[in-house]
Design brief:
1 helix; mainly beta; 8 strands; three-stranded antiparallel sheet
């Protein structure tokens, strides 16, 4: 499946070649410190490719180590998406903080 490419013209403007799929965010899941799992109902089943990304609510003091603290997985079944925070080390629940996971399709 071709996702397409972005093409920049001579003036630096981004144009589309017609083969791109624009990502759509379908749900936002807020994980608070201490949460292990949280589910959300999607407005529709995923029809394209699933994608997700996170955004931390905490200041990023360590850009290399901080993403490792947010060890989570996303699973989708029908219109239900579940974000599971996975504790790898015993000290991890005291690390990190609140973060948001955006779930969508493209």
């Amino acid at each position: 499946m071709v996702a397409g490419i972005y093409i920049a013209d001579q003036d630096g403007n981004v144009i589309f070649d017609g083969s791109q799929r624009i990502p759509k965010v379908l749900a936002k899941v807020e994980i608070k410190r201490g949460d292990v799992s949280k589910s959300v109902t999607l407005p529709k089943p995923i029809e394209g490719e699933l994608f997700y990304y996170f955004s931390s609510d905490e200041p990023d003091n360590n850009p290399y180590g901080t993403p490792l603290v947010y060890n989570f997985s996303v699973s989708v079944s029908g219109t239900t998406a579940t974000v599971t925070y996975e504790v790898v080390y015993q000290a991890m629940p005291t690390f990190g903080g609140n973060f948001t996971v955006y779930i969508g399709e493209y």
